[in-house]
Amino acid sequence: MSSCENITSAHKEEKAGTLPLSLEEYAITSNGFLPEQIPLKRLPQLYYDPWEDLVETLPTAIADHTLRPQVDRLPILSTDYLATEEQWRRAYVVLGFLTHGYIWGGNTAAEILPPSITLPLLSVSHHLGIPPVATYASLNLWNFTSTSPGHDPSDLDALQAQHTFTGTTDESWFYMVSVAIESQGAPLIPLMLDALQALFPSPQPHPQPHSESPPVPNPPPSPITTATTALNTMTTTIHNLGTLLDRMDEHCDPQVFYHRIRPFLAGSKNMAAAGLPRGVFYDEGPDSGGRWRQLRGGSNGQSSLIQFLDVVLGVEHLHAGEGVQVVRSYSGGRGGGTAMNFHQEVRGYMPEPHRRFLEDVEARWPGGMRTAVGRVLMGVDGDGKGQGGRLGDEERALGEAFRTATRALAKFRNKHLQIVTRYIVIPSRQPNGSRGINLATASSRLEAASSAVGGNRMADGGAELTGTGGTALLPFLKQSRDETFRAGGFHVQ
């Protein structure tokens, strides 16, 4: 584990011996799922200058339609000289931007990714345990810098993306809102682990006869009070994250996002209408051949923080729309080939340590707070035996804190829905004069066809409006929001 993945000394001292899981083992820092330090701005080896020089001028190369020939002329560089995890991540960011710029940076999509990108990208992706495509990690987690003192990633106004496809402030702001959300949500990770541990206590040995001990002058709070306080803090934090989400309009124009930014974020899964009916062929050269791949694009659904909040609260997401199968190559070997919902499958697009963290939290505290709080409210102790009696003020406060936290997360998801409406649905219904074929023009054609038949599907029976991750966008987001409400016991029409 590289030094940048260590939690700060103060944080270590505060939590040493108390947290039920070691965050360092999961590449979780004091910034949460963000790295401890600002990501590398350039690979230090001169050998990788061809990559770095090209990505530095990416917006210009895309605008001038010179990116594809420049990529075609790139030498096939080895990854043997990448020495640290920071460098592997930097290479993944650079190659991810070059990949999506190459695929979507023309009037039509490029179906074949050349060996100069394919070979090093496959190597880097294999090392990191993450798919060979631009993901939330490469677009957000490992793609920021800050001008604030101490490079604080929670200060949105001081953040800036290291790389964009368009060179616009709009695109940088779009990524950095997510970075600030990740940072401001980071303190919830140790806090909620402690809360889960408080309500899921380890079996205690039977007390042995001994002489009476003196009373403790300042006894620690009860497990119920600990969990209640944590849930209330969680509610406040989620409200703050929603405030950050509301700031999207400040520097990101919906028209710029829809027409210029969003097309580059698309993957190759369910993108037939955008020009990739078979996905993308990753050409590995004449000796190795290659293969067609259909992969999801960058999506906020790949945020480990939001999925952590789901796991903590015990939100259950059911299958939605298409039947999703595990992507074996990037699932860490867990789950085999069983059917999965979207939330489970996109964990394969997260950094491997983060994916493993979510799985381990789920396994250690099944059902999260929903199960734990339910047991308390039913008067059941840790051994599954009824305690009887009426609920006291402490238990009622816990129940209310849980319901309030789940409602806050559902409302956060509702804010996301509102942004999707402003930034995707409404622009898709407005005239689109572009002659190119990409996700924007495909979505606009879809909405035009939908209006023509008076429904929400294409006249030929095609799928609904598709997100960059390849899902039916609005039904998926609405179902996720409603499932969150239900976790708190709220009725959803």
TrEMBL record:
<dbReference type="GO" id="GO:0046872">
    <property type="term" value="F:metal ion binding"/>
</dbReference>
<dbReference type="GO" id="GO:0020037">
    <property type="term" value="F:heme binding"/>
</dbReference>
<comment type="similarity">
    <text>Belongs to the indoleamine 2,3-dioxygenase family.</text>
</comment>
<dbReference type="GO" id="GO:0005737">
    <property type="term" value="C:cytoplasm"/>
</dbReference>
<keyword id="KW-0349">Heme</keyword>
<feature type="region of interest" description="Disordered">
    <location>
        <begin position="200"/>
        <end position="223"/>
    </location>
</feature>
<keyword id="KW-0479">Metal-binding</keyword>
<dbReference type="GO" id="GO:0034354">
    <property type="term" value="P:'de novo' NAD+ biosynthetic process from L-tryptophan"/>
</dbReference>
<keyword id="KW-0408">Iron</keyword>
<dbReference type="GO" id="GO:0019441">
    <property type="term" value="P:L-tryptophan catabolic process to kynurenine"/>
</dbReference>
<dbReference type="GO" id="GO:0033754">
    <property type="term" value="F:indoleamine 2,3-dioxygenase activity"/>
</dbReference>
<dbReference type="InterPro" id="IPR037217">
    <property type="entry name" value="Trp/Indoleamine_2_3_dOase-like"/>
</dbReference>
<feature type="binding site" description="proximal binding residue">
    <location>
        <position position="416"/>
    </location>
    <ligand>
        <name>heme b</name>
    </ligand>
</feature>
<feature type="compositionally biased region" description="Pro residues">
    <location>
        <begin position="202"/>
        <end position="223"/>
    </location>
</feature>
<dbReference type="InterPro" id="IPR000898">
    <property type="entry name" value="Indolamine_dOase"/>
</dbReference>
<dbReference type="Pfam" id="PF01231">
    <property type="entry name" value="IDO"/>
</dbReference>
<protein>
    <submittedName>
        <fullName>Indoleamine 2,3-dioxygenase</fullName>
    </submittedName>
</protein>
